[in-house]
Design brief:
The protein is built from 15 helices and 25 strands. It is α+β, with helices and mostly antiparallel strands and 506 residues long. Bound molecules: manganese (II) ion. Manganese (II) ion (MN) binds next to loops.
C-alpha cells in the first residue's frame, strides 16, 4: 500500500521552497503536513513477509520508521527540518541536479553508481562512504544504488530523477541494519521514480534507449573487455556516445554554496580548537596524540576524522604522509600534525607543527618562522581580486621559501627546493580531501573555491644542509575559502603564531 503522498513536496520541487513547510520533501514531513491538515499521523508501510511472500501492511508513527541514514524526524539532533544531510537541504540537492541537467546536451542522461562497501579483511568491512558525486547529487548514503538523471527540457528543473536502491527487507535489515527503501527514495530523497536495484537490467535499458548521450564514470571497459554495465548500455542503444561525467560535476562542486562553506567552517572551527587544545598538553607518544585528536574531533561535533592523520615527532615529519603514528615523542623535537575533522561529509585539512616542550629552540623558531611568513603571504592572496591560480600560488611559495631558506644559510642551488619542499602548496577541499579530482590547478581562483595553503620544509639528515636544521620538518596548513577581496580562513582557531603557541603553556 502506498503512503499518502502530499503534493506539497512536488509543489515545492516545481515552484521552490514553501515557507513554513518542514522537511518539504520528506515523507515524514509530508505526513506531519498532512497532520496539520488533519489527516492521519500514522503512516502505512507495506512490507513483504519473508516467510510467505504475503504482503501485509502495518501502521507506524513517523519516528518509529527506520532509514539507512539520519533523517530529521528520527535524528533531530543531527538534521534540521528540510535537510537531507547536515546543512544541505532537499532544495539544494534539487538545485544541484537541475544545474547538472542544464549542463547536459538535449536528450542526454547521467548515470551514477553508488560506492561499494569495502572490505578490510574477510568479512570485516570499513564504514560505508558514498561516492562523492553520487552524494553531491542525492544525499543518499547507501551502497547498491544507481542514479539516472534524464534531461527532459531546456529549463532549470527540466529533469527526471531515477533512484534505484534496495527495497525494504526486514529480514535482511535485521542483520545489516536498516536501509531506506523505495518509498523513502521518493519521499525523503525526492526521486521522481524509484526502482529496485536488483531489476537494473530491466530498468536501465529503456532509460538509455532514446538517449542522445550518456554521461557516466561507471567503467565501460575492464582489461579490454566491456563491463556488464557497458553490455547493458550497448544492448539498449548501440549508437549512443559515452562521455565522462566527472568534469561536469566538478564544475558544480568546485564553487561551494554558502551551506557547503558553513559546513567546512564548522569542521574547521571544531578541528582548529581541538588542535590548539592538543598544543596545550604534554604528549609522550604519537599514538596518544593521534587518539586524542580523533576522539576530540568526534565528541566536539564533527562526524569523525576526515582522514588518517599524520602525527610525526621530529625527523619522522620528513615523511610527507607518515601515518604509522606509533613512535615515542621527544620533548626536544617538534611534532608535525596533519589532521582534521569532517562535518556533514565536508572535510577540513589542517597542519600544524609545534615544539613538544612548549618552547621553540632558536633553530626551530627560525625554520618555523620562515615557513609561517610564506604561508601567511600566500593565504592573503586567496581572493578573487588577486587573479591567482593554485599553480601560481605554488610558484610564489617556491620563490618565498627559496628566499627565506637562503637567509637561514641553506645552499639553494640545483635541486635544493625540490628536496626541501617536494609537494604542491595546495589543493581544493570539499567533500573530498583532494576535492574535484581532475579539475586542475590552472583555474583562476573565484569566490567559493575552497583550497588549502600548506607550504612545508623537510630537511634531510644530510651534510648538504645547515647542521642545526637537519632532521627538522615544518608544515603549516590552513583550509581557506576564496572570497572576492579577502580570504575566509576556515581553520583560524588552530593557532600558528610563535607567541600564541608558546602562550598556550604559560
Ligand atoms: Mn592538505
Amino acid at each position: 500500500m502506498k503512503l499518502p503522498r502530499c503534493i506539497a513536496a512536488r509543489l515545492a520541487r516545481q515552484h521552490g521552497p514553501i515557507h513554513g513547510l518542514t522537511t518539504p520533501y520528506s515523507q515524514l514531513a509530508a505526513a506531519s503536513l498532512c497532520a496539520r491538515r488533519r489527516l492521519p499521523q500514522k503512516i502505512t508501510v507495506a512490507y513483504s513477509s519473508w516467510w510467505s511472500g504475503r504482503k501485509y501492511a502495518t501502521a507506524v508513527s513517523a519516528t518509529e520508521l527506520q532509514f539507512g541514514q539520519p533523517v530529521h524526524e528520527t535524528h533531530p539532533h543531527i538534521l534540521k527540518a528540510g535537510e537531507i544531510t547536515p546543512g544541505i537541504t532537499a532544495q539544494e540537492y534539487h538545485d544541484r541536479r537541475a544545474k547538472l541537467a542544464l549542463s547536459l546536451p538535449d536528450g542526454a542522461v547521467a548515470v551514477l553508481a553508488a560506492a561499494e562497501l569495502k572490505y578490510r579483511s574477510g568479512p570485516v568491512f570499513f564504514p560505508f562512504r558514498q561516492e562523492s558525486n553520487f552524494l553531491y547529487l542525492t544525499g543518499f548514503s547507501e551502497p547498491e544504488a544507481m542514479v539516472v538523471i534524464q534531461k527532459t527540457g531546456p529549463r532549470h528543473g527540466d529533469y527526471t530523477f531515477h533512484l534505484l536502491c534496495r527495497p525494504k527487507d526486514p529480514q535482511a535489515e535485521q542483520w545489516s541494519g536498516p536501509w531506506s527503501g523505495l518509498q523513502a527514495a521518493q519521499d525523503v530523497f525526492n526521486a521522481d521514480v524509484a526502482g529496485d536495484i536488483s531489476n537494473v537490467e530491466s530498468i536501465l535499458p529503456p532509460l538509455v534507449k532514446g538517449a542522445t548521450w550518456i554521461y557516466t564514470d561507471i567503467e565501460m571497459n575492464k582489461a579490454g573487455h566491456p563491463t556488464d554495465f557497458a553490455n547493458l548500455v550497448r544492448r539498449a542503444n548501440s549508437t549512443v556516445g559515452v562521455q565522462r561525467l566527472q568534469p561536469l560535476v566538478n564544475r558544480l562542486r568546485a564553487i561551494k554554496s554558502s551551506a557547503e562553506i558553513a559546513n567546512m567552517r564548522k569542521a574547521g572551527q571544531i578541528s582548529g580548537r581541538v588542535i590548539s587544545d592538543a598544543m596545550r598538553r604534554d604528549w609522550k607518544t604519537e599514538k596518544e596524540l593521534e587518539t586524542f585528536l580523533n576522539y576530540q574531533f568526534t565528541v566536539s561535533g564533527c562526524d569523525g576524522p576526515a582522514y588518517v592523520p599524520v602525527v610525526a615527532g621530529g625527523p619522522r615529519g620528513c615523511g610527507i604522509h607518515y601515518v604509522q603514528n606509533n613512535a615515542m615523542l621527544d620533548r626536544d623535537d617538534m611534532v608535525l600534525v596533519d589532521a582534521g575533522g569532517e562535518y556533514g561529509a565536508y572535510i577540513t585539512d589542517i597542519s600544524r607543527t609545534w615544539p613538544l616542550s612548549g618552547r621553540f629552540s632558536p633553530a626551530q623558531r627560525d625554520l618555523y618562522l620562515a615557513v609561517l611568513k610564506v604561508q601567511r603571504s600566500v593565504v592573503s592572496l586567496c581572493r578573487e581580486s588577486s587573479g591567482m591560480t593554485l599553480d601560481r600560488l605554488h610558484r610564489i611559495t617556491e620563490d618565498g621559501l627559496r628566499d627565506q631558506l637562503t637567509q637561514l644559510g641553506f645552499d639553494m642551488s640545483g635541486n635544493a627546493l625540490q628536496i626541501l619542499f617536494p609537494h604542491h602548496v595546495g589543493h581544493y577541499v570539499g567533500l573530498d580531501v583532494h576535492d574535484v579530482p581532475g579539475y586542475g590547478r590552472h583555474h583562476p581562483l573565484k569566490s567559493g573555491h575552497c583550497v588549502t595553503v600548506e607550504p612545508g620544509v623537510y630537511v634531510p639528515k644530510d651534510e648538504r644542509w645547515p647542521k642545526h636544521f637537519r632532521g627538522m620538518a615544518v608544515r603549516i596548513e590552513d583550509s581557506v575559502c576564496v572570497d572576492d577581496d579577502s580570504p575566509f580562513i576556515l581553520t583560524t582557531e588552530a593557532v600558528k603564531e610563535v607567541e600564541d603557541i608558546e602562550a598556550l603553556r604559560d
